[in-house]
Amino acid sequence: MAVREPRQREERIVRTDVxxxxxxxxxxxNVLILIKxxxxxxxxxxxxxxxxxxxxxxxxxxxxxxxxxAVSLAKLRLRHDMTLWDIGAGSGSVSIEADQLxxxxxxxxxxxxxxxxxxxxxxxGKFQSRHINVVSGEAPACLEELPDPERVFIGGxxxxxxxxxxxxxxxxxxxxxxxxxAVTLDTLTAASEFFENAGYQLEVVTVNIxxxxxxxxxxxxxxxxxxxxxxxxxx
Length: 235
Hints:
The protein has a single domain, classed as Rossmann fold (3-Layer(aba) Sandwich), CATH 3.40.50. About 25% of the residues lie in helices and about 20% in strands. The chain is built from five helices and eleven strands. The protein has helices at about 65-75, 95-100, 115-125, 160-170, 185-195, and strands at about 1-5, 15, 85, 105-110, 130-135, 150-155, 175-180, 200-205, 210, 220-225, 225-235. It has a seven-stranded mixed β-sheet, sandwiched between helices. Strand 6, helix 4 and strand 7 (about 175-180) form a beta-alpha-beta unit.
């Protein structure tokens, strides 16, 4: 326990841990500030970008893979106090990692699939996410009651891509960003056409991932389907 020099005659500034609070005789009028600290390294440390896919409870293959997740979050250009919509949140992997980058912001994880919602809530508890709001419903209808976003990530649109993009366009401020993960040429073409017609700055990055197979006699790379990471910035 460290006691600093008082600024006024009867003022005390004490730094301690939670257990040490039991030993402190505090005045009736006092201010308590709790600061969460993380250990460097180890299993209990704060998650960094690229949490292993195996750490998430999920429907098989319905997850934004860790390498694609890291690229997508980088393209979002998140600031600490922003509001993010994660549409088609699935297991919540993007929301959970974004939560670490938005200590003063809010994440709205939007999902319509009941099975995915169950896994999403399980993962939020596991990673102790604090700023994620689960929205059960189908976009764009469920977006009306949400606060306006500054960033939007779309991992799945349920066949309503154009309707969702129109709703986003009406709410997104200038310089706002939308990042879409597309695995089909249909989604890539539709999204590119919408953003070009709406006057957005558009960038598309193709992410090709191949991983070595564990526990095999030979190191063979197993390729995953390419993902188109679409980034659109509103003029």
